[in-house]
Amino acid sequence: MFNRNSGGFKPFPGKVPTNVAGAAMGGAPYFPSTPCPMPTNVSPAQFGPMPSQTLPTQVAPTQVAPAQVSPTQQVVKTNVFNTVVPHVHPTHTTTVNKHVFTHQHYFPQTQSVVNQCFNQQMVCCPPPPCCPPRPFGF
Fold first, then answer.
1. CB 24 within 8 Å of CB 30
2. Is the CA virtual torsion 10, 12, 17, 20 positive or negative?
3. What's the Rg (C-alpha) of the chain?
4. Its pTM surpasses 0.85
5. Distance between alpha carbon 38 and the CA centroid of its chain, in Å?
6. DSSP calls for 76-135
7. Per residue in 64-94, pLDDT tens?
8. Tens digits of per-residue pLDDT, 12-62?
9. Torsion-angle region of residue 27: left (phi > 0), alpha (psi -120 to 50) or beta?
């Protein structure tokens, strides 16, 4: 039985099992016919080498313990269904033809050259009489 409060597995709460490995066939416990108890106050080295014994192999019936159930593992299976949804986005184009008239204004200009010639006539009189030179500062 699984005890959830203790967190562990307790196969026989309050009972001692008699049909486990090491027990004789039929559920009776196995005891050797000639027990050889070792004295507790004497070292085993004082007895010398121990004689080897070969006992028959005891095979107990196979036991089946209660099932241990793990927590349920969650698995997600995804199915994909593709659906095409048409979306129509209409567009209208208007073509506008514009005629542009460019008016160009010209202002032609002519040039002419006038050459003028002037004459001056001067009558020169004799210069006035000059004074004799004087010393500087007087």
1. yes
2. negative
3. 70
4. no
5. 69
6. ------------------------------------------------PPPPPPPPPP--
7. 999 999 999 999 999 999 999 999 999 999 9
8. 455 555 554 544 445 555 555 555 555 556 565 566 666 677 888 888 999
9. left
